[in-house]
Amino acid sequence: MFDQKPGLLDQVRARFAHVDSCPFDGPRVFFENAGGALTLNSVVDTSAKFAAIPDNQGRDNVASHALVATIDRAKSDIRTFFNAPTGAVFVGESGTELTFRLICDAILGAAPGGIVLGATVEHPASRSACTRWAAVAGKEYVQVPHDDALGLVTAEQYAQYVTPDTRVATILHTSPVTGMAMDVAAIARLIRATAPDAYIIVDGIQHASHGRIDIASYDIDGYVISPYKVFSRHGYGIAWASDRLSALPHNSLVGGPEGSWELGTRDTGSYATFSDVVGYFDWLGGEFTDSTDPRERIEAAGQAIHAHEASLTNAMLQGTGNLPGLAEMPGVIVIGGVDNPAREGLVSFASENIAAVDIVSALKAEGIRVHLRKDDHYSGNILTPLGQKGCVRVSLCHYNSQAEVAAFLAALQRIL
C-alpha cells in the first residue's frame, strides 16, 4: 500500500532514529523489531525535554500544572489509540511487570476456587504470572495446547478447555516467536459464553506496533503493551484495566485516590512520548483517509501498516526479483508454515543444514540484524514441540523496505 504513495516510505523512515545505521556498528538493515522497534525522533526530543524539568506533579505552580496537563492529554491519546473509552489507563515499570500486576489482582480478586485458563503459545510473562498466582490462590492453572504447525491458538481450541468455573483467562494477541496473531475477540466471546464473569487479560506487546488495537470490541478486562516495541523508548509499560478489574483490591496507598493503579510519582516524559507515538499513527493514517477523526486516522494507519508488512513478508517468503524466497531455499523450515494469513510482520525459520546461531552470526557479518530464538524459557514452548533447538527470527515493521528484504535474501542465499 505504501508503494501507491510515492515518497511516503522515505517520509516515514525520516521520522525514525537510526533507521539504516547502528550508532555503534555502522550501516545495517534492522530486522530485529520484535526485540525493540526503532524510536521516533520526536520521542528522543520529548524525552530530553522532560528529563530536564525539575518540578513534580501535584504542586501549585505553572510547571507542575503543565506536567499534569501533559499526563491527562497522554491518557486521552492512549484511550484513542486503544479505542478504550472506559476503564483506566496507566504506566508501570514495563509490559512484563504490568502483566504480572493485572494477572495477580485478577486471580486474587476473583471468586474462590475454579481455574485460571491460558494457552501454551503465550509469552513467559503471562504463563509465569499465572503459574505463580494460581498456586498462591489455590486455583488450577490450565493451558490450552496451541497448534504447533500454525504457531497459534484458536477460539475452537479454547472451547475444549473453558469451564463455567473459569475465573481468569489470558490471551496472547500476537506471538513474538511465530509472528501469528490470535483472534482476541473470538476467543474472548467464546470464554464469555461459558464463563461470563471471568477476568480476561490480553498481552498486546508484540501486536501493538502493527496497529489495529480495538479494546471496545474485545469484551476483555486488561490489555498490556511495551512502548519500546511501538516506537517509543524503554523504561515504562502501558496498561488498560476495565472498571470491574480496577474495582478489585490492588496495591495502592491507603487514603489515596480510589481506583488508582500508579505507585509513586511517574515519569511525565513517558506519558508524553506515547502522545508522540499516537500523533505519528494519526499523521500516517491521514495519508490514507480524508477523515478528521483521530481514531479513524489511526485505524487507517493500522490497515496500511498491515498491508505494507504483508507485502514485505510475502516477498521474504516467496522471493523478489530474481531472488528466491525462504519457501524456495533448500532445507529451510518456516515456523508456522509459509501460507499463514495470521502472520504479522515476522518470519521465523530454521535450516536443516546450518545451526540458527551460525546463520544469525553470518547475517550480522553481512549487515543484516536479526535475532536468535532458542528452546529456552522464552521460546521453548514453540520450538521444543517442533524438534528445533533454535530458529532465526526476522521481524520487520512498516518502515522497512522491499530493498531491505532483497538484501536479506541475497545475503541468506550466500550463507546457505
From TrEMBL:
Keywords: Lyase, Pyridoxal phosphate. Coiled coil: none annotated. Residues 29-256, 303-408 form the Aminotransferase class V domain. It comes from the Bacteria. InterPro entries: Aminotrans_V_dom (IPR000192), PyrdxlP-dep_Trfase (IPR015424), PyrdxlP-dep_Trfase_major (IPR015421), PyrdxlP-dep_Trfase_small (IPR015422). Transmembrane segments: none annotated. GO terms for molecular function: lyase activity. This is Selenocysteine lyase/Cysteine desulfurase.
